[in-house]
Design goal:
about 65% helix
Length: about 280
């Protein structure tokens, strides 16, 4: 069996995805903190104010620690999925519970990578779609926690979609370009219509950019199905959270995770199947 068929098989991609999921947990937790520090520093510089010295924070440093007792996580406690199971979801030092979200993100990413391998076969382009999926997982996690979709993730995702299309790796460039335009203008129009009608902001600008990126990867015809699916699932989740008192008064459910989920679902289903389901084929 050729090496490419082994390395790009769903099983191997699943293992790779679990490892990438471990890194995505770091991105989801640290990137918003890094951005917040950067914004504070820029504001202080503009105002001519001094800022206190703070420890270096990047995606690589410092080493991961238990937030409860500060125990430094050793290498054997940081093996994706396996360590959480071995430790039974608790810190080895203070026995504080470790959030189940960490292994969930790892398993989710591994499952998505395996599905990408099944969808695209043992072709190098599968790695491209794995990167697309991983970026959406990170964006969904960050938006759920902070209602923030960072430009330094949405914009590279958008440009990567256009570049991939221009190189003939995904969809025709024209379809990608107009998909990006339609994705941005679709939610931009909804935003302004809602604001002019109610005087309130119904969503953030990051949602426009994320849908533009999805349009660049998946094409013009997939923009509306993505919005419809995300809106339906988002409404259901919002209602359930409201009824269960999980959604506090005055707060809202971010739209980005549902856009990301709909984008992944459309990618895995394929354009022909999605259009067939909607009767638009």
């Amino acid at each position: 069996m050729p090496a490419a068929e082994v390395l790009l098989s769903p099983f191997v991609l699943a293992i790779f995805g679990i490892c990438i999921g471990s890194f995505l947990n770091v991105v989801i937790h640290r990137l918003p903190l890094m951005l917040e520090r950067g914004w504070k520093q820029e504001s202080a510089d503009l105002l001519g104010l001094a800022t206190p010295e703070t420890p270096v924070l990047t995606l690589a440093t410092p080493r991961s620690r238990c937030p409860s007792c500060g125990h430094a996580i050793s290498w054997h406690e940081n093996i994706p999925l396996a360590s959480w199971l071995w430790l039974r979801g608790r810190c080895s030092a203070c026995r504080t519970r470790i959030s189940a979200r960490y292994p969930i993100i790892e398993v989710l990413t591994g499952a998505l990578f395996a599905l990408v391998g099944w969808r695209f076969g043992t072709q190098p382009v599968a790695l491209l779609w794995c990167a697309f999926s991983a970026t959406l997982v990170a964006l969904a996690g960050i938006d759920w926690d902070t209602t923030l979709l960072p430009d330094n993730m949405t914009l590279p995702l958008l440009w990567a979609g256009l570049v991939a299309a221009s190189l003939g790796w995904t969809i025709p460039l024209g379809d990608a370009l107009w998909g990006a335009v339609a994705g941005y203008l679709c939610l931009w129009s909804v935003y302004w219509l809602f604001k002019l009608t109610t005087g309130k902001e119904g969503m953030g600008f990051g949602d426009f950019k994320l849908l533009a990126a999805l349009g660049a990867w998946l094409g013009l015809k997939m923009v509306l199905p993505i919005v419809l699916a995300a809106s339906l699932i988002g409404a259901i989740v919002g209602i359930v959270m409201k009824m269960s008192a999980a959604l506090r008064e005055g707060h809202y459910v971010p739209f980005g995770p549902f856009l990301a989920g709909a984008g992944v679902a459309v990618m895995l289903a394929g354009q022909a199947r999605v259009l067939g389901w909607l009767g638009w084929a």
